[in-house]
Amino acid sequence: MKTPEWIVLAGSLLFIVYYRPWKSHDSKDMQGYLLSDRKMC
Fold this sequence. Notes:
This protein is mainly alpha-helical. 66% of the residues lie in helices and 0% in strands.
């Protein structure tokens, strides 16, 4: 792979890793974190 492809790949992986915790930073417990504070039923 060429350098621009590595940059896009690394950027995508970093976005995936950091977006989820940032998006759910206000969850109060593990259940809320995993479900993004939504209910199953």
